[in-house]
Prior knowledge:
Blueprint: H1 2-51, H2 60-64, E1 67-68, E2 71-79, E3 84-90, H3 96-105, E4 107-112, E5 119-124, E6 145-149, E7 155-166, E8 182-190, E9 195-203
Parallel strand pairs: 3-4, 5-8
Antiparallel strand pairs: 1-2, 2-3, 2-6, 4-5, 6-7, 7-9, 8-9
Amino acid sequence: MKKNSLELKIYKTIFNMLLIVAIVVIGMIAHKYIGENENEKESQDAVEAFSNIDFSEITEESKEQLEYKGYKVIGIVKIPKINIEYPILEIGNIDPESAKEPMKISVIKYWGEKVNDYGNLSLAGHNNKSGTMFGKTKKLSEGDIVELSDLEGKTIQYSIYNIFTTSPNDVNILLPRDEHVREVTLITCTNGNKQRLILKAQEI
Length: 204
């Protein structure tokens, strides 16, 4: 009888511990999704504000002062097929530590030329499970359209011509296929952050 009572206590203790762990995990997941949704709303507000700018009247000095949450805004990336649109943030030096905070709130310029300049512009965004940022880029196919709007008020369409995965250390993805062609490279993590999903697009 005592043995059964002891076993029951052990089972109850284990159950309670598992319940606590489950509550903590659920809380962490909920907190992450709430944070992503809040960032999503704020980034869409930034996109709307950018869209309302009259670029014919804005000065070069004013362009330098366009910011979102303390980071310089250099354009907008829009992908109609998966219904995403984000400010492109420029953060200066690119390293995992300095990119951590801005990538929580929007897409960043990872490497390359100015938005809509000739050559390759590489943009990085998180592969959020909620589908925000670049979380739905896996649904894209060759021929799908990426739109970039710049600080001159110009919007250019790019057609995806190559989709592949590679290692995080592959720097060849940053190189332009042709320096005389406008190109954009979208970068996001995949396979548990062990690889990078790459989408290459060039001006139509």
